[in-house]
Specification:
4-stranded antiparallel sheet
Length: 119
Amino acid sequence: QVQLVESGGGLVQAGGSLRLSCAASTAISNAMGWFRQAPGKEREFVAAISWSGGATDYADSVKGRFIISRDNMLHLQMNKLKPEDTALYYCAAARITWATRNQNAYDYWGQGTQVTVSS
């Protein structure tokens, strides 16, 4: 059983930056991703990265502002934050090696870290 723990969330003003990280209890050789859920909304895709880190995918709403990366952890650099980025952010590990937006392809999920962007 893989355990994922997110960190790095917090309160930031609009236009600011945050860097989220996700630590896994074991090495992950598959794709990983970030998702978010705002109050009253469904969980949505944010970004994904292939097992090698060579391929990435972003939601249109964050493209050009967020950067996903991985080393021995998964990271999400969030720049030019907007109030609409406010959500609980989850990292997840997939059962496949290529980056995917499909939440059903992800077997393991963290508990989430809260990001709040004030206007």
